[in-house]
Amino acid sequence: MPQMAPISWLGLFFAFSLILLIFNCVNYYSFLPQAPEMTEKSIKQHSLNWKW
């Protein structure tokens, strides 16, 4: 079985690295998080009266 030339390994490395980067960028920018809506009920203020 003949071995591949080093330039072929380098070409495969660059090709797979480029595919990996493109895949990661597409996955990162395709996710749109939903911002939580702030309502009066979700905001609770507790007044603490300390007795020293």
TrEMBL record:
<dbReference type="GO" id="GO:0031966">
    <property type="term" value="C:mitochondrial membrane"/>
</dbReference>
<protein>
    <recommendedName>
        <fullName>ATP synthase complex subunit 8</fullName>
    </recommendedName>
</protein>
<keyword id="KW-0138">CF(0)</keyword>
<dbReference type="InterPro" id="IPR001421">
    <property type="entry name" value="ATP8_metazoa"/>
</dbReference>
<dbReference type="GO" id="GO:0015078">
    <property type="term" value="F:proton transmembrane transporter activity"/>
</dbReference>
<comment type="subunit">
    <text>F-type ATPases have 2 components, CF(1) - the catalytic core - and CF(0) - the membrane proton channel.</text>
</comment>
<dbReference type="GO" id="GO:0045259">
    <property type="term" value="C:proton-transporting ATP synthase complex"/>
</dbReference>
<keyword id="KW-0812">Transmembrane</keyword>
<keyword id="KW-0375">Hydrogen ion transport</keyword>
<keyword id="KW-1133">Transmembrane helix</keyword>
<dbReference type="GO" id="GO:0015986">
    <property type="term" value="P:proton motive force-driven ATP synthesis"/>
</dbReference>
<comment type="similarity">
    <text>Belongs to the ATPase protein 8 family.</text>
</comment>
<keyword id="KW-0496">Mitochondrion</keyword>
<dbReference type="Pfam" id="PF00895">
    <property type="entry name" value="ATP-synt_8"/>
</dbReference>
<keyword id="KW-0406">Ion transport</keyword>
<feature type="transmembrane region" description="Helical">
    <location>
        <begin position="7"/>
        <end position="29"/>
    </location>
</feature>
<keyword id="KW-0472">Membrane</keyword>
<keyword id="KW-0813">Transport</keyword>
